[in-house]
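Throughout our pipeline, every protein is held as a single compact record rather than as scattered files. Nothing more is needed to write down the fold, since each code stands for a local backbone conformation. The record that follows is passed on verbatim for readers who wish to inspect the format.
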Amino acid sequence: MRKQVVFIADSLDNAYKFQKVLSEFDVEISAGSTLQIKKLLAPEVRRDLVVFEARDSALAHVDEVVQLAREHDCPLLLIVDESSLDQVKGVLVAPSDFVMHGAVPGECSARVARLLQDADAGMYSELITVENMTINLATYQVQVGGKPVDFTYLEYALLSFLVRHPGHTFSRDALLQHVWGFDYYGGSRTVDVHVRRVRAKLGPDLAQHLETVRGVGYLWS
């Protein structure tokens, strides 16, 4: 049976982007705006995943959507702005997740795939451990030596992307595409700045894993 995905957004821009992402999966999509939340999330409606654009004026509905998804044991994926991360993290509970507005299709697809898998199989592994560092992909948190490290979202996204692709060298342009997303038009030197910050926060031992490949880019060894 095809999985049922409910997509709620007031932005045609995100609706278009996620239509492409969801087309990779064998799903049926019911879509609407925040004016149709109660109808789309009614108890009698079967759903395997809810995708909600929690941005701008729609952010006011996030508690309602989270509560309705929780009542029906339905995984929830929120599309958020960096400015609302603290608010969103405060209301989300597993197996829900969020993705940044402007994230590349690959990141969006990975989040959707994990949540759809969770609807079938329950818990999935969200922890990556390298030496004394632990990355929690569900909570976007990093610990080194048992102590939390305060990364910005983009620093975290850069680190987690490289760690999930060990031994693979990425050019600066490729990292901009994978980490910074659809709508970033800045220069590639911003990658160098973020790499320096990540290395400094990791400490000298772990920083050795984030290697510079001269003339190409960076890799996690």
Q: What stands out?
A: The chain is about 40% helix and 25% strand. The chain has a mean pLDDT of 82. The chain has two domains: 3-121, 152-220. The domain at 3-121 is CATH 3.40.50.2300 (Rossmann fold).
